[in-house]
Write a structure and sequence with these properties.
Layout lengths: L8 H36 L4 H22 L6 H26 L7 H10 L1 H8 L7 H17 L2 H4 L3 H37 L9 H18 L3 E8 L3 H7 L1 H18 L5 E6 L2 E7 L3 H14 L12 E7 L8 H17 L4 E3 L5 E3 L10
Parallel strand pairs: 4-5
Antiparallel strand pairs: 1-3, 1-4, 2-3, 5-6
Helix pairs in contact: 1-2, 1-3, 1-4, 2-3, 3-4, 3-6, 5-8, 6-8, 10-11
Length: 371
């Protein structure tokens, strides 16, 4: 809720898409509303005051429309923040410009009403931030400049009215608190929703759908930084026999226990994905050949818990690495690991086949295969 440094890639991507989508909708609406306000300025202000504001509003409306179009294009979180900052700068610029215009206008009747509406723009900006799923740090980064502009902007033209400005600051502070709470609620809801959609409810691992995004992101990062990136394809041996002999509840328990043991034997940074049924893909980021071997040796030596009949839960494992195996894309890397897993399966199970034909085998007594 406070900062985004620990957010997983799938959450970051979804937040970027959500922010860009809402920038698009808000910018499209404001491109029309900004033009409609020209009529009010025309009725309330003398020439050339309303003319200056009308010119600025025409420019702002064009910028809003451009932002609505730009937000349709491919977006990252950084680009989404740039779009959001650009959108917020437009009404803030109109607010600051209005301070200069109203300094030369007698504020009575309709002009006084118009000036109050312009003075409310910072409030509208901060309140509007509540529709975006932001962390506390991000929310403050966007809101604080608005508060400073609303507090000290009038000093540029008409001096500093302590009573009015402190009242404005107090109101903005209250709205800031409400906005931050609203943003955190949105973000918390998004995290929980994505967690349910992206994690397997039985084992707690990533689903294949969300796992695809993570594999792709890590593969690209490995290519960009030229660092090792390995995957291990893990298929539990003779798992069907557990369901056949002991029922599906026992099978579910074996799966959950196997994943818990797998996570215990791996590094905290390694990622486990349920690829389907009793098949799992493990992502070993920045793991050298020696690191891969050590990780697989730990698994082969201890295995992944026990079955209801007391025999160990063994697996057939295939490992592939981006650089040493020359994989051009992540599907090819997964396919190679799958092929090596199949080699381990047909050559006796309870073993791991790695690059270069290296095999790590176990002398564990295998469970009976289902017929």
């Amino acid at each position: 809720m406070l900062i985004s440094s620990d957010h997983p890639p799938y959450l970051t991507r979804h937040r970027a898409e959500t922010i860009a989508s809402r920038v698009r909708m808000v910018a499209a609406a404001f491109s029309v509303l900004t033009l409609a306000w020209i009529a009010l300025d025309r009725l309330a202000l003398p020439w050339p005051s309303w003319g200056w504001l009308a010119g600025l509003r025409l420019l702002a409306a064009g910028a809003f429309a451009a932002l609505a179009v730009a937000a349709h294009q491919g977006v990252t979180l950084r680009r989404a923040f740039i779009l959001l900052a650009a959108m917020l700068s437009l009404p803030l610029s109109l607010f600051l410009a209005s301070q200069a215009v109203f300094a030369d206008v007698t504020l009575g009747g309709a002009a006084a009403v118009d000036s109050r509406l312009y003075a409310a723009l910072p409030v509208i900006i901060i309140a509007g931030l509540g529709v975006f799923p932001l962390t506390v740090a991000e929310g403050l980064a966007f809101a604080v400049p608005v508060i400073l502009a609303a507090t000290f902007g009038p000093m540029l033209t008409s001096g500093f009215d302590w009573v009015n400005q402190l009242a404005t600051l107090w109101v903005l502070g209250l709205i800031l608190g409400v906005f931050l709470l609203q943003s955190m609620i949105q973000l918390h809801y998004m995290i929980n929703l994505l967690r349910r959609a992206s994690h397997d409810p039985l084992t707690g691992t990533f689903t294949r759908h969300s796992g695809n995004e993570i594999v792709e992101a890590q593969f690209r990062l490995s290519c960009r930084q030229n660092t090792p990136f390995a995957v291990a394809f893990v298929d539990l041996d003779n798992f069907k026999s557990v369901n056949d002999a002991h029922g599906h509840e026992a099978g579910d328990w074996v799966l959950k226990n196997a994943v818990a043991n797998l996570a215990r034997l791996l590094r905290r940074s390694d990622i486990v994905i349920r690829w389907g049924g009793e098949e799992f893909v493990v992502l070993l980021g920045n793991a050298t050949g020696e690191g891969q071997r050590i990780a697989m040796e730990r698994i082969v030596e201890e295995w992944l818990g026990t079955r209801p009949d007391g025999l160990p839960v063994t697996a057939s494992i295939g490992v592939a690495e981006r650089i040493s195996d020359g994989a051009q894309d992540w599907p090819a890397l997964i396919e190679l690991a799958d092929t090596r897993m199949y080699q381990a399966k047909v050559s006796g199970k309870a073993r791991c086949v790695m690059g270069g034909g290296a095999v790590l085998a176990s002398d564990a007594r295998l469970p009976p295969a289902s017929r």
